[in-house]
Design goal:
Largest sheet: 2 strands, antiparallel
CATH architecture of the largest domain: Orthogonal Bundle
Radius of gyration: 17 Å
Number of strands: 2
CATH topology of the largest domain: Arc Repressor Mutant, subunit A
Number of domains: 2
Structural class: mainly alpha
Helix content: 40-55%
Shape: globular
Oligomer: single chain
Strand content: 5-15%
Length: about 130
């Protein structure tokens, strides 16, 4: 299971962030076929958003055949594989890096300091 989180400063609509997290979770095999997702209400409460936001994300993924909703039982990861193409990965990486720089600047961190810190984390191994 993945830990859902929303970034209120990213400018990306909340339903799109939910869709992206589910798609990436499936592509990285952190969400497996048949795995049950939180209910609309549970996820809305967890993310502190309107249930319609979660419902919109789930519906979009259902239309694409990525999720299966069974009335009275819940929403499950479907059997369809999800692949994230190089262009989409590059776009996501750019977005993450832009966010990192934007969040570090008010604290006076330079890009060089952030890169050095990331390299040190890489050398230290998984956290």
């Amino acid at each position: 299971m993945i830990e859902f989180a929303l970034d209120v400063k990213s400018g990306v609509p909340f339903h799109r962030q939910i869709v992206d997290q589910i798609r990436y979770g499936i592509a990285c095999e952190r969400l497996l076929p048949g795995e049950q997702l939180p209910t609309v209400r549970e996820l809305a409460v967890h993310l502190q958003v309107n249930p319609n936001t979660v419902r919109k994300a789930y519906s979009e993924l259902e239309i694409l055949g990525i999720l299966d909703t069974q009335q009275g039982t819940g929403t499950f990861v479907g059997q369809r594989q999800v692949e994230i193409g190089p262009a989409e990965k590059e776009k996501m990486l750019k977005q993450i890096c832009d966010e990192l720089v934007a969040r570090g600047q008010p604290y006076g961190f330079t890009l060089k300091e952030m890169v050095t810190h990331l390299q040190r984390r890489l050398e230290d191994g998984p956290q």
